[in-house]
Amino acid sequence: MSRALSTGLQLIGNNFSGEGDLLFRAFDPVQQQWLPTEFREATTGEIDAALTLAAKAFTTYKKTTPAQRAEFLHAIADDIVSLGDELIQVASAESGLPVPRLQGERDRTTGQLRLFANTIAEGSWVNARINTGTPDVRQMQIPLGVIGIFGASNFPLAFSVAGGDTATALAAGCPVVFKAHPAHPHTSYLVATAIRKAVLRTQMPEGVFSMVHGTSYETGQYLAAHPLVSAIAFTGSFKGGKALYDTATRRAVPIPVFAEMGSVNPVFFLPGILREKGPALAMQLLQSVTLGTGQFCTNPGLFITPGDDATTTFLQALQQGIGSLPAAPMLTPGILEAYQQRINALQQEGVVVLGAASPAPAKATPHLLQITAEKALETPHVLEEVFGPSSLHIHANSITQLYTLARQLEGQLTATIHGTPEDLHEHAGLIDILREKAGRIIINGFPTGVAVNHAMVHGGPWPATTPAAGTSVGTAAIYRFCRPVCYQDFPAYLLPPELQDHNPMHIWRLVNGDWVRTTG
Amino acid sequence: MSRALSTGLQLIGNNFSGEGDLLFRAFDPVQQQWLPTEFREATTGEIDAALTLAAKAFTTYKKTTPAQRAEFLHAIADDIVSLGDELIQVASAESGLPVPRLQGERDRTTGQLRLFANTIAEGSWVNARINTGTPDVRQMQIPLGVIGIFGASNFPLAFSVAGGDTATALAAGCPVVFKAHPAHPHTSYLVATAIRKAVLRTQMPEGVFSMVHGTSYETGQYLAAHPLVSAIAFTGSFKGGKALYDTATRRAVPIPVFAEMGSVNPVFFLPGILREKGPALAMQLLQSVTLGTGQFCTNPGLFITPGDDATTTFLQALQQGIGSLPAAPMLTPGILEAYQQRINALQQEGVVVLGAASPAPAKATPHLLQITAEKALETPHVLEEVFGPSSLHIHANSITQLYTLARQLEGQLTATIHGTPEDLHEHAGLIDILREKAGRIIINGFPTGVAVNHAMVHGGPWPATTPAAGTSVGTAAIYRFCRPVCYQDFPAYLLPPELQDHNPMHIWRLVNGDWVRTTG
């Protein structure tokens, strides 16, 4: 079998499989050419096989110790590093993203895996709660079952095969059946081989991880509707997330869908700070809008200013700045086309172009757009996400109108306020409004760049994510793939270590109402 | 206005309102007579008014301190106690439940309110997570918004107007619009007056609590579909919960529904324990099956035995015991009728009557039913919940078949195993299967009786509840009505006290990965 064919296969448990006849290839958006390797769309039989193995693996994987799972996660990270430059080169060809960005993304990916490994090795995340007495009841989080995860186009490593969702599910004790994003199938294949190697090396049960390819709507729907799947995680468009949500909530046995469906991430500039450093903020905003060709969930797609002189200076700086920014390739021809169409379509709806970079063939041109507050309030759909390097400006003719605009916003991943201490003191009410709209509120910063740690929230009210209580970044993401179970009047020898009297895991537990870590 | 009319009203904010023309009355199932007071079904205008006030109240209620909300919850508990005997008498007339049971239920209700008051006063429940550095990110749980709560028929106090869901939502900082169960409208009215008194006394914002009456499907659907509602909590039938779930997930902005939809709560008896104390267990099982006329979500509606000699003795004891148990009134004529119809219908499906108490007019007769394992596996719908004092026995002809039956079960609130240490050692695999099926696993006990504390789980996989990750009893229930929010790079003076460096609330927090409670 040629190398090209051998890489075009699904990973079903520990074996590669290529039963289907539907072939597809990835496109290099920088070189503007189709890449040579052909990939095979998974058949329903292959998806069934992956899920059957996953369900079987769950019976043993859920019983692995946290130390064993931590070792597995570290092994995946090590094996991703071992893929070396090939991974970066392949990912760059398939995504058009520059090598340094992908090197950073690889660090983030392995960092996430190791953060989850350390979190479960420490162990307190299970939220052990013990009430002794009659009855004796002891609660902890247990894994939910097999998780179906969909890779995102815009992070071929960090939100893909061994990305945050996979790290989270495997840390929790859940097997994963991963649907690779068709924009980077070869990258996905390489990372899948790293996971396979880690599975074999750390003796994890076969089926704890499988990966299937698919370009069609049907492949994703088949996974979401499958009785062996216990939850879905998705990062992508509203349309894609909503379709999975609809399928999953209408099953005979509904399952949760944790979908991150995008956001316009509004940035509010208050009067004082614009006077103080408008031009500098303009440069920072442009940088944030065009970072990664604007292909981030947290891209600031909307910014709102009060209408005064300082705003005029700020806008002039933006207009001057954007002219010198380069057009850049996008992830796929489809994404680029959608970006260009949206930019054009918005201009039919009262949106004007405030400034734009110079166009270049097959590249996305950074755009600054503008709409009046009145028009924005009348036709709120113009505020919907434009995926790419653009941002829409709204001029509020008063602070009251700025508040009104804030109140009308849909749910967001992030909301940002720039202000001097005086601005912020005066407009605490704005923070208050925005807290109801977003999962993360940023003061004097920009939303791009999501730190991966214990405190991050990457989620927010509908339509940013579903449900609002989830986060897909940070260690709190693990609770998406768990549920609490209560052990009543169990003899000591049948209790999991996390709940035994002598606390052998040395974890923090809520014992009769007090958080303690006593042992012995 | 006559007393009868004055009690027939909705509580909309702090005012009573009775705009509707649809009247209904409650029925006394013991005296077998309609009660005199007429109640008015809420109009959509009244529901709109309640929700508008609730949404307005949210803007200030969410800013109350935990100490203020704790004071409010204690005040509700005090004011319920102040209702004195009238509450118990009215509840007994409307439900047919005996006075001592209702006195106990009142204690549980006030106990729940005080437990949540103490939990929020302590404060660590907000799960504060702080990562200092660049950026500085700080996460905590915030209230979700207005919660629509549906009262249950079978707990006119503890799962009703000031019951667990209301206590939880108010503790979290969420206003409540409560849909009273039409079986106990007068009880609901009295408790609503107590909450109103507490609202006024502790100066809570008007609209933090409203109560509407309704007998129709449409009233509930209107509430679940309303744009001002952020989540629904429900305890009742599968049909009722599923209808709300379908509405809530198909809205333009879907919202979570936390529905507790019942369960058969299987009890497994292992061979050794049946030999050791079969007759004693038979008496305890009968007691659990008929407690409260079987009208508990955790009623053991299914029990499974291995087929050997000890089982024969156990079944004989059950047959002897049930004959002497009294028939008893049920909550409503509709519930009684449904019980009798199900008992009859099951007999058309291969279910046989193993034993029954003596019938009495307008009362539910305790029943023990039986079906073969083969038939149960073929027609799993015979295993669906029968709400009332009955339990279905399945004779497994082998331990293998007993495991097969366990594997076939739908999601449950509870699952119970009776066994000697030897039994349990031998059948740890059964515990393992049941852990995937239920939210609470009980060893050598019975599922009726749900302790209200930090460690309880009252929830489980579909169709027991949705989502499986929720619990509607115990302090962990609070997370249903919250979501995490992350404050990035906030100046100290804009942070909530829970997240300030010097930890003025003295709460446990995850600071840079370590759980600490340091202050200053």
Structure, described:
The structure is a homodimer of 520-residue chains. The first copy, chain A, is α/β, with parallel strands linked by helices. Chain A folds into two domains: 41-261 and 471-479, Aldehyde Dehydrogenase, Chain A, domain 1 (3-Layer(aba) Sandwich); 267-456, Aldehyde Dehydrogenase, Chain A, domain 2, CATH 3.40.309.10. In chain A, 39% of the residues lie in helices and 19% in strands. In chain A, the strands form six sheets. Chain A has a seven-stranded mixed beta sheet, with helices on both faces. Chain A has a six-stranded mixed beta sheet with strand order 11-10-9-12-13-21, with helices on both faces. Chain A has a five-stranded mixed beta sheet with strand order 22-8-7-23-24, with no helix packed on it. The model of chain A has no long low-confidence stretch (mean pLDDT 96). Chains A and B meet through strand 7, strand 8, helix 16, strand 20 and strand 22 of A and strand 7, strand 8, helix 16, strand 20 and strand 22 of B. Strand 22 of chain A pairs parallel with strand 20 of chain B.
